Amino acid sequence: MAKITIVLLCMCMLAACGNGSVEISNVQTRQTTTAVLTLSTTITGSIPSGTTINSYDVTIPLPDGVTVSSTTNPPLTDAAVVTTINSAVGSLVAAVYSAATGTRAALVKIHIASGTGFSAGAFSTVTCAIKAGTDPQASDFTAPTLDDATGFDNVSNSSVLGLEENLSLTSTVDIQ
Predict the structure, then answer these.
(1) Number of domains the chain contains
(2) pLDDT at res. 49
(3) Residue 103 sits in a domain of what CATH number?
């Protein structure tokens, strides 16, 4: 019995030996994977009374390491990339993605159109993917441009072209 006690005592002492340090090997850093842009317009000029906005053409440059899901040929964005919100819900969306080249940033070109029209304000979100190992900030996103906006004047029953001159486009970026 004394031999068993001595063996157990030795095993306990060996188990307690060590260098006294604690090693933490499961530390993880959070990798952002998505950036969501919300596009909005405000009226900055004069739009005829009774005019609805019927379409927007927008170009969005993307910073390095940011892309969108798309098909290759034709280079259309996947359906979940560009969504309409607020009064633009139900509008038709067509969006094309051009990958970055050595001289040009990646671009998303969006066309949103509605037969019934929508009002100025937040009209769309664009969901972007962030490449692993990159860490873009909201300030890295260049402001999109409103290339064209058309409307319909319900009083005179006529199209109104050139509305982009009377609208201001802004975007907010939420990096998740």
Answers:
(1) 1
(2) 85
(3) 2.60.40
